[in-house]
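[Solved] Which block belongs to which protein?

Original post:
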Amino acid sequence: MSFADAPSPAEVDCLLRNAELRDAIEPYLDDDTHGDIDFAGMPTEVENRYLESMLAWEHAPLTPVAHWFSPPLVLSPAVGLTESQLRERLWDVIDRLYAERIVLDFTDHLTDRELYNLIRREILPTPIKRVDLPDNYFHWDCSAIGELPEFVVGQWYPEPVLDSLIWLTYYADDAERAEWEADFGVDLPPREVPPYPRALPSAPV
């Protein structure tokens, strides 16, 4: 090997870090997991970031979201709030959740009061692994909660379709809807425009 072909100190450090990370993650991987990861197709730097993320997930504490904050985040019941008070507190808690890298997805079918109650009753009490990496975001799918559109109430759908019907009605694109219709042999209700559009903070999935 010529000196020109020799790895740089940074490349050597990257390879040593890779070996260290592979050893550290090995106890957490089973044969099925190995089969899902194409390490050979990854640049070493990318693989290292991926392995660091996996290790951070394995080591992360399982903590109710409310206790990610100090003091713990508590929301008062919505019933005692005016619409203006509720909206102000809703956006405050959305910003605070985002500061802790929690992103709310698919909220535009919910009223402010419904979204506030979802955060208070479902999100804050739920234990989630808190992964302390700057590019790691937890995405909460809010389409699993909410009232079904009136025109589908009483209609029969397979359980997977029924569970995803809000998302399919308000958020799925035409290609996604067509795939679900073909897979389950059903005709989905027409697409609807979500009635409460919001410009929430977002992050890559």
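(Second protein starts here: sequence line, then its structure tokens.)
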Amino acid sequence: MKNFEDRLAIITGAGAGMGRELAVQLSAAGANLALCDVHADALAETVALCDERPRVSTHIADVSDEGQLETVRDEMLAAHETDHAHLLFNNAGIAGGGSFVAGGRESWERTFDVCWKGVYLGCRVFLPLLIAADEGHVVNTSSINGFWGSLGPHVPHTSYVAAKFAVKGFTEALITDLRIHAPHVAVSLVMPGHIGTEIARNSVLLHGSEVDARVSERANEFRNSAPTTAAEAADIILDGVRRNRWRILVGEDAHPLDELVRADPEMAYEPVFVRRMHDAGVFRNVVAE
């Protein structure tokens, strides 16, 4: 799908970060948008940044709830007066649930449900709309933590990692499934590295915690220290869609880390691996020992 003009794109997590930037860039390319997020005020800010020419609808939903996504589907079809869509960006995600052993179950499952079920249910609910179109493209967001299940040898990171590995496997399996049953629909797997987004702040809110001064400072540090901005990430993703690439690594840190893991997977979770990362200029803030 090299041209997005007059195509209908569904974007989850459109209230901030990569979802917002995807909306802005797609609207500039002439696409119509159905934007989904849990925060109405954030969606309104995204809409204000979009081009005024395409048709834009906004929808409030928790992507881990199938019933809410079905409501979004019905609302967007009515708003756009159509029975199909062309692009689906399962982009919503949060962090949390670090330790399976010592952490709380509620936080663990909340993170897993948003990051995995949000993609799975997004495809269950919206993929039939893409199959009904003349062409379609599904874009599922995993992470570098979908091929490297760690934040370093001293930091448990189980829920987010488990979800992102699930997204990776599911999306790769969809390549063959769609080729057999819906060859006019393509699929891409997005694996971002450290991107300058509000995921740290938004994750705290979605887990029901307060964003105090300390949390705000850490969230700002996460966003501002990223080697890749959300706008740059969106540009890379859309370029990958235009090129029909199924595997889209995002960020200058993602590529060397991918190479390091592939070169020596047995050592990927040892302190020596982090030293190799540092030597390659990747994630210098991760402590090896």
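Accepted answer:
You had them paired correctly. Confirming on the second one: The chain has a mean pLDDT of 90.
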